Amino acid sequence: MHCQRFGLDVHITRHARERMVQRSISEAELSALMETDEVRYKDESRLWIAKAFKGRCDSLICIAVALEDKLVLKTVMHHFSWEVEG
């Protein structure tokens, strides 16, 4: 898998793959999430990407990502909400 948005190949950790299965999140949904929706950075190399999918009832789907020589997907969350900044 490759992410056009970041221009990097994607590595999905074992943990993230397990969460995808548990939460019924497909690779197609994961790909759409990486390419299209909101990104928030923790620092230069760690970030979250979240997206609401029509037809899903579990709120935002979010991935925790590390920017390395590849885009490393650490985990996949559902029922996610952004923390209020301030």
Automatic annotation (TrEMBL):
InterPro entries: DUF4258. Pfam families: DUF4258. This is DUF4258 domain-containing protein. It comes from Marinobacter pelagius.
